[in-house]
Specification:
Elements lengths: L6 H16 L5 E5 L15 E14 L5 E5 H6 L1 H8 L2 H7 L4 H13 L4 E9 L11
Parallel strand pairs: 1-4
Antiparallel strand pairs: 2-3, 2-4
Helix pairs in contact: 3-5
């Protein structure tokens, strides 16, 4: 019997199940849209998985002593911000003397050398299908 699948969310669930079955050794990590947790209260929030994929992530302490988790793709695309937040001072000083091409090459080599963790990422968004129907 063929399973009928409708909508993006059903496909995301199927993708998550497929990735978990094919990669049982990988942790499953949730990336949650801030709209899901739009207050500072101490409670649980409900969200809906809308996407699943494999990604490399890294968490580091920023210059403001906060923790931030990056995907490898985001770090490479925003290498100037990543370097500013995470690189040791000697590397920042070295990189600021380089032209754009050399900066990208050196920065990306350093970024790739960090201990990135391969994970299954599930993207959690506002559960639109659980919201009440608007009253007219």
């Amino acid at each position: 019997m063929e399973k009928k699948v409708e909508g993006k969310r059903s496909l995301a669930t199927l993708e998550l199940l497929k990735l978990a079955e094919e990669n049982p050794e990988l942790p499953i990590i949730a990336e949650v849209n801030s709209d899901v947790v739009a207050d500072d209260g101490y409670m649980s929030w409900f969200g809906e998985v809308t996407e699943a994929h494999i990604e490399y992530i890294w968490t580091g302490r920023t210059y403001s002593e906060m923790f931030r988790t990056w995907t490898l793709n985001d770090a490479l695309m925003e290498n100037d911000s990543f370097i500013e937040e995470n690189a040791p001072e000697f590397l920042k000083q070295k990189l600021e003397k380089l032209n754009d091409t050399d900066f990208d090459k050196e920065a990306n080599e350093w970024i790739k050398s960090l201990p990135w963790k391969k994970c299954i990422i599930v993207y959690v968004d506002v559960p639109n299908n659980l919201l009440p129907e608007p009253e007219i």
